[in-house]
Design a protein that fits this description.
Length: 184
């Protein structure tokens, strides 16, 4: 519903992606913003355990496991905040996709996340395995929609400038050209 803020995590329900960290953060957020809805889009080996944790923790009204979805861009566009509380990563496509859609994002300082997000400028970075930091970042974005919107707009610009297909192809070609030159 439009009056209820939505926080989205997209990814496998697996220890790597930290859905348990999001659940711990959700408890903190819901204590202060009980109208918030948390969505987990994805499937994986932790789905059953997470569903049990939601039941046991009384979170089923506010936290929903959606399973695999073909409409992830629409879910991202409808979200107020997109989070990626990963324990480890490469350069996560879900993060780049959310940024390209001008969504305010919160991610951990693992793998390529700090390459994608300039913290405080094009999103927020938090330490890994820190549900309290995740909760505080979510609450800060929900409390200041203008700031969240500005971060999302900066994120879209960053993706267009640094992670476009054209730029990626040009950088790859440049590497191959340099390697060819070195072998001659």
């Amino acid at each position: 519903p439009p009056a209820r803020p939505v926080v989205l995590q997209v990814g496998r329900l697996h220890p790597q992606k930290g859905p348990d960290i999001l659940l711990a953060a959700a408890r903190v957020v819901l204590a202060r913003r009980p109208e918030t809805i948390f969505l987990l889009a994805g499937d994986g080996p932790w789905r059953t355990a997470l569903a049990r944790a939601l039941q046991a923790g009384g979170l089923t009204e506010n936290v929903r496991i959606l399973g695999w979805r073909a409409d992830v861009p629409a879910l991202m566009a409808a979200s107020d905040v997109v989070v990626l509380p990963s324990r480890w990563e490469g350069l996560p496509y879900a993060l780049l996709e959310a940024m390209a859609l001008a969504r305010p994002c919160v991610a951990t300082t693992v793998g390529g996340c700090p390459e994608a997000i300039e913290s405080g400028v094009s999103g927020l970075l938090i330490p890994p395995q820190d549900p309290d930091a995740l909760a505080e970042a979510i609450l800060a974005l929900l409390a200041d929609p203008a700031w969240a919107r500005a971060l999302g707009e900066a994120a879209a610009q960053r993706v267009a400038q640094c992670f476009s297909l054209e730029r990626s192809v040009a950088q790859t070609v440049a590497v191959y050209e340099r390697l060819l030159e070195e072998t001659r």
